[in-house]
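Hey L., structure's done. Input below.
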Amino acid sequence: MSENQNLLAEQRRALILDEVRRRGGARVNELTRRLNVSDMTVRRDLDALARQGVLEKVHGGAVPVAEASTHEPGFEAKSALEQGAKEQIARAAASMVAPGGAVALSGGTTTYALARHLLDVPGLTVVTNSVPVADVFHEARSGGELPPGAATVVLTGGVRTPSDSLVGPVADRAISSLHFDVLFLGVHGISAEAGLSTPNLAEAETNRRLVRAARRVVVVADHTKWGTVGLSSFASLDEVDTFVTDAGLSDEARAEIEERLPGLLVVGDDTGPGPARG
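Output:
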């Protein structure tokens, strides 16, 4: 973690959270020294992160929150995390979309960010089981922001999850009859052992259907999702074509992913995002 007096609050808190998770905890005096900010600034940042429920304050510092494999944060709670990284990932993923294609977007806050970058792609058909993603296109169309022939959205039915995704038998049947050029998939967790996973059993089955219906699978997830394991796995790493993530991913994780996936695209590196391998 490099020292920088000019970090934005969001960037600073992301660095603090990464340090706490990576080391299993951090002391206030260590964070003030590494970030070159005041003790009061660090304490305010820890208060804000504790309110989001992503770490726990202890005497003199903070420790990670131990989440059960069945814990599923709500959409609003997840939206507040890693916002800068999600925006970079979304821009990079949008560059993979060709006009006139059929694209599926799963639920998730990163796919929600991606949806806003697809509004200007002409002739696009979007299938989603995410209520917030569908709202992006519906609101743009109502406001006259979509060009002619852009973004025909098909929203699958089903039961709504805490993350505002529609899942269950109704959604599964609708997806099973469809075929996509590319699926952009948000995940709760991704690891070498468990593959892609979610805390929600019904969502796991719906995501399996999405993966099967896609010619190409692109996972869009910030670096904090690597190593996280939810209750139910729904796809193995060899079913993923490209993983788009941010520069917070450790060198060890990059090496492990590159051994298992045909494509890894890391955005936010000093050299800028390069083309995905594969």
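The first helix runs from residue 9 to 23. Residues 1-6, 68-72, 271-275 have pLDDT under 50 and may be disordered.

-- N.
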